[in-house]
UniProtKB/TrEMBL annotation:
Protein source organism: Sulfurisphaera ohwakuensis
Signal peptide (residue range): none
Example of a GO MF term: iron-sulfur cluster binding
Family matches, as PANTHER family: RADICAL SAM DOMAIN PROTEIN (PTHR42731:SF4), SLL1084 PROTEIN (PTHR42731)
Stated name of the protein: Radical SAM protein
Taxonomic lineage: Archaea, Thermoproteota, Thermoprotei, Sulfolobales, Sulfolobaceae
Coiled-coil spans in chain: none
Domain of life: Archaea
Length: 489
């Protein structure tokens, strides 16, 4: 239960093992403990959990998010313990990448194992308390059936759970047998009116503006959900909840922020301008959770929209940059055509590398700092595809950014594919990671010095990040000096 020092991107470190510094320092850097009240309720909690909490409270149940360190105060009286996690068993792309390279258990995995093995949970489970698990990584339990049995999970809830969890809660109170697995498909997903507003502050002021995505990339589970836009009035209510609870910096969340109010895949200026004016009315600084590169290029080339939005974001002088995660996925037009033909739309998929470069140029000029994720090890990937991605990395060097190559994980339409948990890196993969590493070091130092973690409050965190970069550079130089040995490993 953490807000990563108010810096969402630091959360990536929590998906890895401690590298070069003690684990206690690593955890303080990536996931410091959240403040709680006397009952153990955190002052901020993950947004998805806030939605489930709100759905249960609105339905009349006594429910609350409790920091794991305070569970012992409540478990003896609990009818049910509900887990949510972004990456239960570290099978997610960032965690599996760290794990595959270092061969060491990531911090998030170790922390969850410590939680579920607590004797007080086992004791109350024996008493009759029900255990439910949901959230974005609930699929991982299906790969760890041994843990379903060991923990005693009664029900897995897969999908948007606001309606389903209310039915399950009533079944628990009525003593009815629970289903082992509940899947909420597109036809059963809650409408906008059925999605409750949060009751307490969300981690880093994250607020949702829509659900779903129209691009239909085969590797992504988001494309399986229907697209729904929140009206501004609903968004404002959640902004007010966060501000009332002292949260004045926030993340605008969508799987593509520029799709808010769009017609299909075509962004529209009016709803986006209204949205940003509304959010900046409440928040001093904002970030975007995700945006697509094609939408960034189209919005700026068609309307000059990125420049207009950044004028709104920066005009009060409270922030000097905007952070966002963008999905590059690959530098190969051939592979893009195979797995994500609409990712480049309205531009031709054959032009996808050019679209990536143009979008990065636009972001650089408008002081948007992207974390660009790439997927390594896709089922259709060839060595030539990897070298095309390396070429793209070289072309992105002039643009302020952090690049994050991640191992392929089967989600979306690929969910039932065989995949490797013990990664076999090819020579091309090694070269890709080497190129990305030096890109990230180059820009990471510049970002820390001029944009990120500014002010005396963040000085210890900033210095620790710089120390980590120095250690990482030294380790990489050792690897590069004996690359043949590393490849054999």
């Amino acid at each position: 239960m953490t807000n990563h020092h108010g810096k969402e991107f630091l959360g990536f470190l929590a998906t890895g093992p401690a590298v070069g510094i003690p684990e206690t320092v690593w955890k303080w850097l990536a996931c410091p403990k959240m403040k709680t009240d006397d009952l153990g309720r955190p002052v901020q909690a993950p947004y998805g959990m806030r939605k489930i909490e709100a759905a249960l409270i609105d339905a009349g149940f006594k429910a609350a998010i409790i920091d794991p360190d305070h569970l012992n105060k409540h478990l003896p009286y609990a009818k049910a313990l509900m887990f949510s996690h972004h990456d239960y068993f570290a099978f997610g792309p960032p965690s599996s990448t760290w794990w595959g390279i270092t061969r060491r258990e990531p911090v998030n995995y170790k922390s969850f194992m410590e939680l579920v093995n607590r004797p007080e949970i086992r004791k109350e489970k024996e008493r009759g308390m029900k255990i439910l698990a949901g959230g974005p990584s609930v699929w991982q339990w299906l790969w760890r059936e041994d843990m379903i049995e060991k923990v005693g999970v009664d029900t897995l809830v897969d999908g948007e759970g606001e309606k389903a969890v209310v039915k399950l809660a009533q079944m628990i109170l009525d003593g009815e047998p629970l289903p082992k697995y509940v899947y909420i498909g597109a036809d059963e997903a809650p409408s906008v009116d059925e999605i409750p507003e949060i009751k307490g502050a969300s981690v880093n002021g994250l607020i949702e503006i829509m659900r779903g995505c129209a691009r239909s990339c085969r590797f992504c589970s988001v494309t399986l959900r229907p697209t729904r836009y929140y009206p501004l009035e609903k968004i404002e209510k959640e902004l007010m909840v966060n501000v009332r609870n002292g949260v004045k910096h926030g993340v605008v969340h969508s799987d593509d922020v520029l799709f808010y109010g769009a017609i299909g895949i075509y962004p529209r200026p009016e709803p986006l301008i209204k949205l940003h004016k509304l959010v900046k009315k409440y928040y001093k600084t904002i970030a975007w959770s995700h945006a697509s590169l094609a939408a960034i290029r189209y919005s700026e080339e068609k309307y000059g929209l990125i420049s207009k939005l950044m004028e709104i974001v920066f005009e009060d002088g409270n922030q000097s940059y905007l952070g966002v995660e963008v999905g590059i996925e690959t530098g190969s037009a051939r592979l893009a055509k195979e797995i994500m033909p609409a990712k480049s739309a309205p531009y031709k998929v054959e032009e996808y590398p050019e679209t990536v470069e143009q979008a990065f140029k636009i972001m650089h000029e408008n002081k948007i700092i992207p974390a660009g994720t790439m997927i390594v090890g896709l089922p259709e990937e060839t060595e030539d595809d990897v070298y095309k991605t390396i070429e793209l990395v070289d072309n992105l060097r002039p643009y302020r950014s952090i690049l994050v190559p991640m191992f392929f994980v089967p989600m979306g339409y690929f969910k039932n594919k065989d995949w490797f948990t013990r990664i076999k890196l090819t020579e091309a993969h090694i070269e890709l990671y080497r190129k990305v590493f030096w890109h990230d070091v180059y820009w990471g130092e510049e970002i820390i010095d001029h944009f990120y973690m500014k002010g005396p409050l963040y000085y210890p965190v900033r210095m620790t990040l710089k120390l980590f970069l120095r250690v990482a550079k030294r380790m990489m130089k050792k690897i590069e000096s004996n690359l043949e040995y590393y490849l054999k490993k």
